[in-house]
Amino acid sequence: MTLPEAAASPLRERQRGFTRRLIVEALSRVILETGIHQFSMQEVADEAGVSLRTLYRYFPTREDLLAGLAVEADQTLREAGFPPTVNSLSSDGIAVLVDDLWRAMGKRPDLVRALVIANMATGFQFGPRKEHHQLLRHSVESMTPQLTSKEQHRMYAVIRYLAGSLAWKVLTDDFGLETEDAAETAAWAIRTLIRDIEAGGRPGGRS
């Protein structure tokens, strides 16, 4: 007796999702152990415990496989509620968002580290993060009407960096901070920046 098609389809999709995640997690470990330029598709298949044929069925090219890192990271963040369904954030809301975001990244550190390495090595920013960036930009513009467009862009650039995976990797890997400490530090930096602007400071200029 076979499962009804309506029930079998979601089951197949879950299985496909599990296999994709298994392969991407294996890729993360291989990149961290072997390097971004040295790994082979066979190594990833072996690490994931799947056949090379299965790997190619999910990821036909090396580029598709690397892009899978961003897709998986994006899905992980969406499952954690990012980006929030709001049009704008308050100054404290941005700091809280970054704190929560970094803690979410810290739950899958190998994936985030491998994604950062892939982005830096290829020069291509994998991953659809447009919604997240738009929210940050709109929030900065809404809370700083006294700044020029150039100054708003400078402020947005700093906050976007502090909200990103590269800054998380630097603080956790290069400086040895635990994710919780790193998240609190990034949130503090953002609050300090915004308070300075609210007190009359200007990005890149003298107060």
Describe the overall structure.
By secondary structure, this protein is an all-alpha fold. The chain has 2 domains: 1-60, Arc Repressor Mutant, subunit A, CATH 1.10.10; 74-207. 72% of the residues lie in helices and 0% in strands. The protein is built from 10 helices and no strands. It has helices at 5-34, 41-48, 52-58, 62-79, 91-105, 109-122, 130-143, 149-162, 165-174, 179-198. The mean pLDDT is 90.
| Main sheet makeup | none
Write down the domain tally: 2
* Secondary structure tally: strands: 0
* Proportion in β-strands: under 5%
Poorly predicted spans: none
Number of helices: 10
Q: Helix-strand pattern, N to C?
A: HHHHHHHHHH
Radius of gyration: 20 Å
Shape: elongated
* Secondary-structure class: mainly alpha
Helix content: over 70%
Overall pLDDT confidence: 90
**Euclidean distance between termini CA atoms:** 76 Å
Summed up:
This protein has 207 residues and is mainly α.
Supply database-style keywords:
207 residues; Arc Repressor Mutant, subunit A; elongated; mainly alpha; 10 helices
Task: Describe the SSE topology.
Blueprint: H1 5-34, H2 41-48, H3 52-58, H4 62-79, H5 91-105, H6 109-122, H7 130-143, H8 149-162, H9 165-174, H10 179-198
